[in-house]
Amino acid sequence: MAAKRDRPAYRCTECGWTTVKWVGRCGECQAWGSVTEVGAVAARTTAAKSVERPAVPIGEVDASRAQAQGTGVPEFDRVLGGGLVPGAVVLVAGEPGIGKSTLLLDVAGRAARGGAPGQERRVLYVSGEESAAQVRSRAERIEAMARTLFLASETDLATVLGQIEQVQPDLLVVDSVQTISSAEVEGAAGNVAQVREVAASLISAAKSRGIATLIVGHVTKDGSIAGPRVLEHLVDVVVQFEGDRHSRLRLVRAVKNRYGPTDEVGCFDLSDVGITGLADPSGLFLSNRTAAVPGTCVTVTLEGRRPLVTEVQALVDPTEMPSPRRATSGLDSARVGMILAVLGTCARAPLGRKDVFASTVGGVRITEPAADLALALAFASAINDSPLPTGTIAFGEVGLAGELRPVTGAHRRLAEASRLGFTSAIVPRGVVGGGPIPDGLRVTEVATVLEAAQLAAVPAR
User: Fold this and answer.
1) CA nearest 155: which of 172, 174, 168?
2) What is the DSSP string of 430-445?
3) Residue 46 falls inside a structural domain
4) Which are the contacts of 275, defined by CB distance < 8 A and separation ≥ 6?
5) Residue 299 pLDDT > 50
6) Which range of residues forms the domain containing residue 213?
7) How many domains is the chain built from?
8) Distances in whole angstroms, Cα of residue 441 to Cα of each of 198, 392, 396, 445, 450
9) 123/19 same-domain check
């Protein structure tokens, strides 16, 4: 029989999908231009004759090596699950200018000063975007100076690995993975092959030496992490840094975490003097008013497992234009449009010839349906020019038929409202019977949006 000719193979650099012919778009992850030829397999991998680290019974594995160590930044430790595990690799992603470098430099400085005198941790900060002098200037500004914090401005992977060999750090910070390149791989820094090689080398060094590693990653226009998708699979923790450029509030949430939960959120205040953790950030999202104002309502949202008291505002203004405006800030425009339609149908709210504006206070973005009821009450208050009673909060999901549906974490929301001094809560039916009600908080259960508006002393027209 004639020898079978080797056929070329093509593989997607994003997800690893293979095909026998080239295509412009991956059939698995639908990425464009990611399918490249890899050739046929020339030989099969054979078993190694000797193993350096033989397998051991699971009961004999030293679990102390996986214990987390605090970084000195409680809000960051909360997201990581208690701190950094030796050998763990954390990918920190976020938009340009959001404060990633400031946060990690603060973490590096506090980690270096965290031990007792003579037992400080050695930290190596590698910057591929700024010079060492620029990093020091920022460190002085945010008070991140430390005797055992080492700075290096390098973009060559081999030099970075040499710095790791020389310094022998306990914590490594690389800013960023897209700016470092290897001379052994073709292409400019930041392309798929370079990012894969740099990440694999840093992860190998971290695992073999037990170095906790923080890697900064850039994001694309749609907010996803730049580079191959396999980068997120290789690292142990993926942390997303979020925030509005025009607001001081920054949120850090874990997208993937092998050592802790993924429903924790850390809150930070970014200012000219650095970045500060906010153990109680609810005050940032409330207006500093002493008198009640029409068109406002306070709700309690859940960011992960943390309840945050947030205020939503609404403005309804008559217009002569044939197409009234619908503008939102910090809210989902589609959800706002749905609530307006429910108010117009179920509560007969006159919204046909009026411009409608909706916003949140403090630059926070609300996406969960629990804020539907508060937004509906804010619209009703603005339409009738009648403020809601002082000290009232509301939360609940609004259905298309005008019914109210319970939401998760209701008693955590009520406890947070009571702690901040609120005295009245309007919630969907079924909340009171699910657990104890905080002292001093009067909870009223309602079934529809119209009933909620009537109880809030805002009569629907």
Assistant:
1) 174
2) TSGGGSPPPTT-EEEE
3) no
4) 99, 102, 103, 106, 142, 250, 268, 269
5) yes
6) 69-279
7) 3
8) 55, 10, 17, 13, 22
9) no
R_g of the chain, CA atoms, integer Å: 27
Q: Do residues 139 and 226 share a domain?
A: yes
CA distance 321 to 120: 67
Kindly report, residue by residue over 246-264, the tens digit of the pLDDT: 777 888 989 999 988 888 8
Percentage of the chain exceeding pLDDT 70: 93
The two three-digit tokens of residue 418, written as one number:
């009571």
**Strand pairing category for 326-329 and 354-360:** parallel
- Asked if residues 271 and 247 have their Cβ atoms less than 8 Å apart, the reply is no
Q: Return the SS3 of 174.
A: strand
Rounded Cα–Cα distance for residues 239 and 248 (Å): 19
Q: Where is the binding site, in residues?
A: 94-101
pLDDT surpasses 60 at 42: no
What residues form the annotated binding site for ATP?
Answer: 94-101
What is the per-residue pLDDT across 196-237, written as a single tens digit (0 to 9) for each? 899 999 999 999 999 999 999 988 877 778 777 788 888 999
- The CATH number linked to 430 is 3.30.230.10
Return the half-sphere exposure (C-beta side, CA atoms, 13 A cut-off) of residue 189.
17
Burial profile 233-266: b = 16 or more Cβ within 10 angstroms, e = fewer = eebbbbbbbbbbeeebbbbbbbeebebbeeebbb
Q: Which letter does DSSP use for residue 88 in this model?
A: -
Distance CA 336, CA 355 (A): 13
